[in-house]
Design brief:
By secondary structure, the protein is α+β, with helices and mostly antiparallel strands. The protein has one domain: Hotdog Thioesterase (Thiol Ester Dehydrase, Chain A, Roll), CATH 3.10.129. Helices cover about 20% and strands about 45% of the residues. The protein is globular, with a radius of gyration of 16 Å. The chain starts with 5 loop residues before the first strand and ends in a 5-residue tail after the last helix.
Length: about 120
């Protein structure tokens, strides 16, 4: 997969996505942890069709600026772009916009390619 490859994910903010429900604040707007989850979901979706069997990715680092509130019922679209691929290390840039095209957040997500079975190690009882 080449740098510049992109994908988007969309979500309409539900009550369960709000800061007051997830515990990251006390207002009924999109919670920062939910915005982060959407950004990571976009990176996972982008990689899904490119991974060899038995391989997956894990998040290793995130930088996030959440700059605009999105109320319940508002739409958020996250566009993730592969910015750099260095061996097993991947860096994505993302931007989230609301239904009016206003920037809600932006940042970077770093992921590492891992062999699923090796990463999980022996099963513990």
């Amino acid at each position: 997969m080449a740098p510049g490859t992109q994908t988007t994910v969309e979500r309409v903010v539900e009550e369960s996505d709000t800061a007051s429900v997830v515990g990251s604040g006390d207002v009924p707007v999109l919670a920062t942890p939910r915005l982060l989850a959407l950004a990571e979901a976009a990176t996972v979706a982008l990689l899904a069709r490119h991974l060899a069997p038995g391989w997956t990715t894990v998040g290793t680092r995130v930088e996030l600026d959440h700059v605009r509130a999105t109320p319940v019922g508002g739409k958020v679209t996250v566009r993730a772009t592969l910015a750099e691929a260095n061996g097993k290390r991947l860096r994505f840039e993302f931007e989230a916009v609301d239904g009016d095209g206003q920037v809600v957040g932006r940042g970077t997500v770093h992921r590492a390619l891992v062999e699923r079975e090796r990463f999980l190690g022996p099963t513990r009882n």
